[in-house]
Amino acid sequence: MAKPRSKRREPAAAKTPRRALPPALWLIVIVAAGVSAATLLNGRAAPTETGFDGDRAFAHLQAQCDIGPRYVGSAGHQQCLDYMVRALTPLADSVEKQEFRVPLDGETPTQTNVIARWKGAGGEGRLLAAHWDTRPWADQEFDPAKRRQPILGANDGASGVAVLIELARLLKANPPPRPVMIVLFDGEDYGPGIDRMFLGSRHFAANLPRDVPRQGVLIDMVGDKNLIIPQEQHSARRAPAVMTEVYDLAHARGSARHFPKRAGYAVEDDHIPLLDQGIAMIDLIDFDYDPWHTLADTPDKCSPASLKVVGDVLWDWVTAAAR
Fold it and tell me: Which domains are delineated in the chain?
């Protein structure tokens, strides 16, 4: 993501991240919490089918991070794509891989948007989206020697995907009152310049499916332990009705502290190409996240409680009475 004008933040002071748990130990933690790796990928609910489970969502976040960096062209990129498709296929009415190619550094690697659909009962649909790739370079590191290393992207990438996969489980168990489309965008964070970012959403916007809903919510960096999501300015100006509806639902649920009705940053993100195509798309993003684009963007900076706050609000929005 990039702020307008400068397109980047000033490098923050270097932080020393805690080491992530090895995959084997993390599986022990998941099993102890009643969520096995097999359960995560077969859509069975634990412990409930009726509410958003922050622990399950966090397990999806950790599983992505266990793969490692997931930037375009990396080994982790293909592994994460496989993980998401395996997770969504038993939960959605249909899952589609929208492949595209963009020249990058003398190569044209395959990139893939993942599109999942639920038919619903009819009426006006809802679009939910997040990006799944990670930044190939930690450009906000204080130490210049570290800026060419890829980030793990626990919050900037994995958190949004984790929320949407857990919502997919609820959509399977509780068919929605309207059509729902979930899109996981590739190539959002490649860079380093903004001309080489938002690649998946640009491709999607230029090749819109005929059944794409006309209202949507993008989520990005929504796992921060200190979650505060003010109203992103492009969203408030260009999709005010969706903004009002989502924030009213958040306040009605008691999440006003996390969703303050005040202006936040104007953020260039995956919602902009869709807004340009007439889709009323807002961006829920906590951009005051110190480890942004650094090696410290690791799971210990994220929280199951934050994922649940966002998931609950999105569930309310998706299941509100069809108009």
Answer: 23-319 (3.40.630.10)
